[in-house]
Amino acid sequence: MLTHLLQKLNHKPPTTVLLRRKTTSAEYVASRNRDPTFEKLMDKYKNLFKVIAIQDLILGTTTNAAAPPAVSLDFLNRLSQRLHLNRGATHFLRKYPHIFNIFHHPIKLQPYCTLTETALKITQQEATAINATLPLVVTRLVRLLSISVTKSLPLRAIFKVFRELGLPDDFEESVILKKSDLFALVDSDNEPNTHLLKLVGDIPKGELVAAVDNWRVVECCKEDCGVDRNEILFSFKHSYPPGMKLKRNFKAKVKEWQQLRYVGPYEAVEIGKKRKNKIGMMEMEKRAVGIVHEFLSLTVEKMVEVEKISHFRKWFGIDLNVRDLFLDHPGIFYLSTKGYRHTVFLREAYERGCLIEPNPVYEARRKLLDLVILGRRGLSRGHSEPTGVSQGEDGFTEEVKTDSDEN
């Protein structure tokens, strides 16, 4: 009895251990600071992506030279789920009368859809702009291959981003084959039935200057430059979402990261030799930031889908989750999750929802976005051309109501 009593007195209750639950990737994405301007822009883009998908289907049809390209509504309705058209293709097409024209086919006796004259002019303007900038397209491909560790990339990965890079539809013939002194298509040794685009020309090292290096030069040359030129040597431009609270320890970490040395995107680096200390991991992360920053700088609209960047991760020597990389650096990138996709923007390239330095291809695509934003508005009686259009304060197109506008 005494022994049993002593055991009860000496017995200690088990200590409760509070384990901190690891944040999931989805929770990390949901907890990011949102930027209203980019969210509003992406809200318009998610419908634009659907419009472009249907437009490509229409333009891809083969018809006689006299008739414009067209597809049947029955065909589009069968693809509604794949195109994320929740209420069917017909309902979606009728929302954009400036872009799509539904008519009854006189021979096949069923409803068909074609592009309006305005939309066709925009596609022609975009094609003309791309053909006029072919030298710039060649430079983009050279830079992209130069970032790769092996100076080669899978052709399928380039097909994923050919629109983002401003490449023509026939870039294999119009760019790669015509520039045989720079590019070559070879078979992959590791993956069967895979073609690699390889950089075979010698590019002088001084010609490949990263976009962030050009920004640093401009900042240092400013007369009112208030930063130490030694501090800006490895810095990136930062601008945070409005309302984001910058705590003192966060500012200190960013300052430390800005001054950290790293290997640039066009500089050679040894792959396989990983440094596991803190400084080595930070340098590896900063190099990844520099590579993705340069990748976005090479795109026409300074934005790209995260999944498409992931196809280049191994070839660029990035051993990190690129989506988490964007979330860890909200001052450089902005990640949006609208429209069944994750899209990343280069923050410094945008102001009030528009590119600061637009290009002809972007301007043509922006006209199509303006038609998407208009929807059914801006149609005058008896006409199919948009009327009463102005530029809003946030950079988006708005309608100016006139007496001729329909109710």
TrEMBL record:
- Compositionally biased tracts (Basic and acidic residues): 398-407
Locate the region Disordered: 380-407
Instruction: List, alphabetically, the Pfam families matched.
Output: PORR
Q: Give the domain of life.
A: Eukaryota
Q: Name one GO molecular function term.
A: RNA binding
Q: Where is the PORR domain?
A: 34-376
The name this protein carries in UniProt is PORR domain-containing protein
